[in-house]
Amino acid sequence: MNKRKLRDFIGTKLMLMGTLFISVLFFLILILLLFRSSLVLESHSITDVLFSSIWNPDAGDFGLAAVIIDTILVTGIALVIAIPISLLSAIYIVEYAPLRIRRIIRPFVDVLAGVPSVVYGLCAFIFLVPFVRDVVAPWFGAQSTGLSIFTASLILSVMVFPIIISLCIESFDAIPIALKEASLSVGATKWETVKKVVLRASAPSVIAAILLGFGRAFGETIAVNMVIGGMPRLPSSLFNPGETLASLIASKYGELMSIPIYESALMLVALILFIVVLLFYLLGFLILRRAKKRWNY
Amino acid sequence: MEEYQIETKNLNVHYHKLKVLKDVNIRIPAKQLTAVIGPSGCGKTTLLKSINRLLDIHDDVKIAGQILVNGENILDQKTNEVPDIRKKMGLLSQKPYPLPMSIFENVAYGLRIHHQKNKEEISRIVEYCLKETGLWNEVKDRLHDPATRLSLGQQQRLCLARAIAVKPAVLLCDEPTSALDPISAQQIEKLLLKLKKDYTVVLVTHTLRQAKRVADYIIFLYFGMVIEQGPAAEFFANPKNPETKAYLSGEIS
Amino acid sequence: MELLNRRTLEENLFKILMFASLCIVLGSLVIIFGLVVINGASSLNIEMLTQTPTISSPGAPPGGGILNAIVGSLLLALPATGIASLISIGIALFLQTDFLSPRVSNAIRFMLDVLWGIPSIIYGIFCLMIMIYLGMSSSVLVGMIALTMLEIPIITRCMDEAIKMVPIGLKEGSYSLGSTKFETAVRVVRRQAFPGILAGMLLGLGRGIGDAASILFTAGFSNRIPTSLFDATASLPTMIYNLYSTPLGQSKAFAAAFILLIIVLIVSVLSRLLTRRLKKHIIK
């Protein structure tokens, strides 16, 4: 056979295999999680698992409600902090900062994105835990060891900053200057132009960025695990310890190799994580696609 | 004796350290259509955008000299008074850029910015502007549709309506027909001829034929310098400079 | 005039808020680097870098260094990145060069994005399950596999984006000269996108070397330097994770964090330089 054709054939087949591998992997993971979590669902109804807040594996209770609530709290607060700060920073960087400052700030944001979760966790442990324990909690009249839901939200919001900021910068940059000029020419100030034109035109991308940040915060395991205190119980205050879905898996990882039903429960948690992230990405994708049809700049 | 609405004195503009406009001294008469002509890349757009201080938004731009509008040097104004200066001048770009909102909101945009709250007043002005630009009949049933659904020609007329909604004194037009099909282009030209009764129109164009069709006054810009300016009839009949003659005869373009 | 003043006032108010926000963001970065540099630099010495942790008698402070973690990280991340890159370039080229319909390609891209976005602990769980099923124990090998899976989506998407920037005219030109799809993919596309491809690999390496969740139980932990693929091994992230809460272990944790941050900086700087080169040399 012609050497060229042979090389072509092998090369193409190899590429195809790689692509198949990764597509299969996606479904394999999903199927594995589904399969392994079915065990716990045989003896516990799904409503029990999701809505009971008693997590006592030794007694056979796998209620995840407390953990789910903690997860929502941690993620929610983190985003409430992160969204305005990230948006305002991104607007400043694109619209107001002089070129020289802009060139310096962009790399900083990228570096922030590359810092590993463990390092965030370490710094949060050294800095934020005492900070919450000695400054923030007393300010609110609460007592805290510093290992708490609030601490986890704080470090999570920092981790989400670079995601939202860099995606927003990208979408603001994509807006043609002439569009901004059109707004300025009727006598709008720069800020009004940002509010009514830039943000409006890039709204779908901004929403997608927020969803991505949400997904990241939702699934963050290590940093949260290091500062949240590992208590899968309903919190009475934000300054109490807690446990999120992701950090639960990290905490109880050891059990994965012992009791099958315990392992199955953790697999269910992993499945929930996978599906939630998948849904967020799907939502973001649909929003972006619909937006491209409506406005095409 | 014509009134000169806009004058520049020794205007020099540097863009990225390149001198784009050199010692430009021009006079633009009020309520007439002035065409700025010249080969591409000679600074026509820069001249236009300096008049409404739109160059301010770019880093690395240095402007020296004076730009007098109704006698006042607008280059003296502080940065936060610039939006009011710009309000007096409407801008029409080469490609139509409708804002990301409905047709109605596009025209009402300027009004809302300047805090016009009265709903009836806004509707009235929007209708008036759309009628002035000949769009009313085409869009009156879909005023709240996204503006991007209009054809290019309609979008450009919308941008014109948007510009006149804030009652400017001057209309700055940067090759507004170059992206349009011939029929839409003709519509825009007709509109400009109609509007020049009420507004001072400054039209940048790089087609001589367009200038011949619509202009009352011509400014010829070549490599950032004003070669000749004057009433259109005289300009075309008796060009004085060699470059002007070369451009008019098509040698340089 | 008064109206304009009010509008400008609103703008100035928000300018202050924007500036404050930016300060918070940059401040966080400064604090993180400050903490790690100050604490890490003070505990970084020759002993730290060249020795493994010594098992000390109870009551005495632990000594030794983090060499086991350094070697472990290199052993895990470098081969993982290499293998992942090979697979990724195949996938990325396959996606781009007309082998598949756009719809299928975009579906695969979506799956890759999801795989990039899921928490890395899921890769750990997945490999753990396979490990148990095959009767293996935590080792370099399993950890490497987990990292490879983790890195493939990242590297593939980065390479994908880099290849996207190759103008379609180049591909068409190549076809018209008689090249097959495969040859066009390999020669023309790869050369143009080379800096971007490298940048993608760097990004994958940076992510892989810093990730803890995926190798927490797949690579295990050990105070010794691994001598075979089947030994359990420590790594810089797991070292930090295991030692961060003990006051005596923190010096090692910070030393490891310091090294990780240096790697992050190098990756960031290099990939920035590479993408700039890509933009310069691109044929339009």
Q: Quote the distance from N terminus to C terminus of chain A.
A: 51 Å
Q: What's the assembly state of these chains?
A: heterotrimer
- CATH architecture of chain B, by name, is 3-Layer(aba) Sandwich
Biggest sheet: strand arrangement of chain A: 1-2
Name the poorly predicted regions of chain B. none
Fourth-level CATH superfamily of the largest domain in chain A: MetI-like
Portion in helices of chain A: over 70%
Q: Going across the major beta sheet of chain B, what is the strand order?
A: 6-7-8-3-9-10
Largest interface summary: A-C, 82 and 86 residues
By CATH reckoning, the class of the largest domain in chain A would read: Mainly Alpha
Number of helices of chain B: 10
Overall mean confidence score, pLDDT of chain B: 88
Beta-strand portion of chain A reads: under 5%
Return the string of H and E elements of chain B: EEEHEEHEHHHHEHEHEEHH
Plain-language structure description:
- The complex is a heterotrimer of chains A (297), B (253) and C (284).
- In chain A, 77% of the residues lie in helices and 1% in strands.
- Chain A is an all-alpha fold and 297 residues long.
- The mean pLDDT of chain A is 88.
- Chain B is built from ten helices and ten strands.
- In chain B, α3 (103-113) packs across α4 (119-132) and α4 (119-132) packs across α6.
- The relative contact order of chain B is 0.18.
- Chain C is mainly α and 284 residues long.
- Chain C folds into two domains: 2-43; 65-281, Orthogonal Bundle (MetI-like fold), CATH 1.10.3720.10.
- Chain C is built from eleven helices and two strands.
- Chain C has helices spanning 2-43, 46-50, 67-96, 102-117, 121-133, 140-164, 168-176, 181-192, 194-210, 236-243, 250-281, and strands spanning 53-54, 63-64.
- In chain C, a hairpin with an 8-residue loop joins β1 and β2 (63-64).
- Chain C starts with a helix and ends with a helix.
- Chains A and C meet through α1, α3, α4, α5 and α6 of A and α1, α3, α4, α5 and α6 of C.
